[in-house]
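pls design
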């Protein structure tokens, strides 16, 4: 989700990662996503929320929609 306020761009992303990833590996994936977004939107403020993927065979639960910043 992206939005602008004046000249600023804000990006809020939710990514689903393998729950078996180590914290270090999950951080590396998230850092790569953040860098790709910053390359596409220089100067943007990026917030990424990480969710573990459900175990194989289970249905994902619907995440609550993000609350817009004031």
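designed seq:
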């Amino acid at each position: 989700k992206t939005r602008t306020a004046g000249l600023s761009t804000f990006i809020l992303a939710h990514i689903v990662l393998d729950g078996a990833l180590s914290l270090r590996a999950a951080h590396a994936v998230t850092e790569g996503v953040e860098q790709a977004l910053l390359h596409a939107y220089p100067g943007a403020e990026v917030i990424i929320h990480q969710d573990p993927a459900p175990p194989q065979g289970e249905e994902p639960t619907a995440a609550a929609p993000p609350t817009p910043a004031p």
